[in-house]
Prior knowledge:
Layout: E1 2-6, E2 24-28, H1 35-50, H2 59-69, H3 88-104, H4 123-132, H5 136-139, H6 142-154, H7 172-184, H8 196-206
Antiparallel strand pairs: 1-2
Helix pairs in contact: 4-7, 7-8
Amino acid sequence: MWKLEIAEGNGPWLFSTNKFIGRQIWIFDPDSGTSEEQTQIEKLQENFSLHYVKASSDMLKNFRLIKENNVDLSTAAVRLEDNEEVTSEKVTIASRKAVRFISATQACDGHWPSKNSGPLFCLPPLVMVLYLTGTLGTVLSSEHKREILRYIYNHQNRDGGWSFHIEGHSTMMNTTLNYIALRLLGEGTEGGKDGAVKKARNWILDHGGQL
């Protein structure tokens, strides 16, 4: 199961001048967690897949932090109808609920983990560098590769390309970068989710090629 390590990272692949404070790292441990937790995580992953070209909303991160911080978030949400008066009681409930959520998603070293999932030109170069240095299979586990593929698939536009960011129109540079990343991660020429690789290649060729 995926675990979020906070302020750790001692090993040959990461370097820090402040003992990794403010850094979070995803680690996959197949022996950790209960079957119930694994089912919950699979539901979160499926939900991410259903949100076409949308961010993940940090669902998995929040799930792990809320569980570790053991904060009760069961307070019912406040809803106001049209023209309903805003009362002090409802403002207080909403404020307390917000504070609880913020407290629940704070990491143990004091920072709030986040990610920059909008740009689609950051991840492919990392895959390329790892491949060129012969460390792709060393740095990235099979589970990491699976999640990278999930991320790339989920943000492919309906026309087969990828944009500069998750809400933009397809561009040649980003479509080429993500196409190469898919191939380096082991996807065949006709492979990928719903024919993602073939769709990307067709988009590149239909728009004059990358050169």
